[in-house]
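ok so heres the complex, two chains, lmk if somethin looks off
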Amino acid sequence: MEKNDIISGMIMELRRGTIVLCVLSQLEEPMYGYSLVSALSDSGIAVEANTLYPLLRRLESQGMLESKWETDNGPKPRKYYCITELGKEVLTVMKNQWEQTVNSMEVILRKG
Amino acid sequence: MDYNELIERYVYAVVKYLPRKTRDDVSKELRTLIEDMLEARCGLVAPTEKDVHVILAELGTPYELAQNYNSQKETYLIGPKYFPIFKLVASIVLIVNLCATFLAIMIAIIFKEEGAQTITGIIQMLFDAVGSLFAMFGIIVLIFAGIERKKVNIETKGYDPYNLPPVPKKEEMIKKSEAIAGIVFTSIFFLVFLAAPQVFSIQIFSSELGIFTVFNEVIVRNSWLLLFAIFLTGIGSEIAKLIEGRYTKRLAVICTITNFLSFFLFALFINTKGLIDSNFLKVINQVSTQEGVNLDFLKLDFRVGFLLVLGLIISIETISIIIKAYKYDKNTK
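and the predicted structre for the whole thing:
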């Protein structure tokens, strides 16, 4: 396997879980897909719309997000997603887990 | 092309891979996404077809996008969990089927059966054989797809390292090759029997009467369901041996049940009305009177004798498995 393939594969695996965490953390207030893409990209997390839209649907089907079509603001109807109680509970746990991982990883990587 | 048309084509190409009930919703959402992306790209300037083209290329192929939508669901027939077993079963069954079909064709040629007398007829038979091979493969795939959907548990519940069976001594193990040979022979036997029951024939030397088949071909073929059931019970115990790999109490129970069932079904089969060919019976009568030998025992006792022999074989096999299971399985648990 090409070195670049290995690297891109590993980066993808590393990002996979973090994107869910990013999404859940941003949806305290309802947002629609593309606004979320922009918000994340402004924070330096580049997520493709073709990954994010399916992910929003998956989180909704798992009960961590809920959605609503809004037709009032502007001419375009948009689907807004917002975090549910279950999503919040999961997010809290995952945040702690993330912090622990980051701390441990920092120690490990500094040693290495 | 109108750029809306291009968008519609893209959206349609994506949602056709998605479950029907989500299609409308995903379509609506995708359209607004594309519009949002166009707005971000063009601002207040009216977008052109080229802009749409760029954005649709950015979104990736419709199939890729649909895959992302479907990624949470099982979009495979047989997953990695069951694939190794599927491969094993499929290869055994297909190899067996292949061997048996060729054997059956050879027998058909030897006995100059209808359809096997000309080269075209034989080629036709070979084509049919290939067709049946594909059908067989299809059936196995369907069965495993069902297993996959039902998520049949193949691992033992309540794992505890203490419950791991001891490494078997050589004599406790059932050789894989033995079980496979068992499956192969059972399959060949039944396939040949169904395809060409005339292999069971008796040649009467002492007269000019020639060769007479014991079983009535039509009746044998009509009882295919029963024969198939016997076949299943037969290979059932062999498959259990293959999976278990050693003599265990569980195996003993399974084999006792399948063997008993096998015997019962065989008894049903052998008592099928008209199974023994009427010509055969006639010949026996004729020979009996001609030669002054009493061959009547062949008529009724034939069945009884057959069942007795079979019963004996099955009992010996069952008892030997039970004994071995009790001898070797005491170590576990």
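quick notes: Residues 119-150 of chain B form the longest helix (32 residues). thats all i got rn
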